[in-house]
Amino acid sequence: MKFRTAVELEQPSFQINYTHKSLFLGSCFAEHIAKKFKDLRLDCLSNPFGVLYNPVSIAKNLRRSIGGYRISEGDIFEYEGLFGCLDVHSEFTKTEKSRVLETIQKAYDVTCEKIKQTDVLFISFSGAMAFREKNSKNIVANCYKLPSSNFTQELLDLDLLKKDYQELFTQLFTLNPNIQIVLTVSPVRHIRYGLVQNNLSKARVFELTHFLVNTFDQTHYFASFELLNDELRDYRFFKEDMVHPTAQAIQHIFNTFSEYYFDHQTKSYCEALRKILLQKNHQALNPKSAAHQNFLKALKTQISAFEKQYDVSLNLE
Hints:
Helices cover 46% and strands 14% of the residues. By secondary structure, it is an alpha/beta fold. The chain folds into two domains: 21-262, Rossmann fold (3-Layer(aba) Sandwich); 264-317. Helix 1 links the parallel strand 1 and strand 2 (43-46). The radius of gyration is 22 Å and the shape is globular.
């Protein structure tokens, strides 16, 4: 008897090696997966513009990065003694305008260089519900807790999203012909405005995602939404807010991702590294004992052998 509906995934046409460089953009779920990469000492850059929820803001910041955009004072707002930019996350808020300009410009410059070298671009769409500032008439990445009267809420137009991303991906493949793009829809539901609105919002980015997968050979879909909401499908895999996934759920999704996307060498690398990290984090009852000193000596030898085999430096001291 089956007690769950397993999500059947297609084998991707490419696989990730531990030497590959990755860039993660989008929702907070992208950061969860990026953290798993970082824990395994894989080369990745995670959300250089902060968490971005809607597709327009993700595309805008990507396009600015690869286009050599120079941030200016016209992009900055001031509210109650703080400065920020509506095109990026509120983590860029500073008390000095110059610092905001500096940190955002650095994010664009770093991302531009990263994209040129990146093997895998991972984009997690949260939904197609977005806020538009009334004065500029622009879609914003974050409302910065500004007065709600400054914004209107809307469901983004699908045809415009398709056109925008078709042009953007064409630019990305021109800049980096070898890049592979993995798209996913965040499994986190946004119920603040109701489940009906959440479903409409998710449906729109689902359609955008599969349009892009069917348009570009180097674009792929990973079913993180289905893994949580259909395969696990139980509130014990959600936090107390009944919306965000637990650590156990995130681990299951990452395990599935790595099983399908990591090549054999990388799976071996990850397994060996996990064993090293487990031993490294071991708490000795008597750190000065001869037994523990022998344990540390053996671990040091194991780390050296690992670094030599995989040509990496773990820097675990």
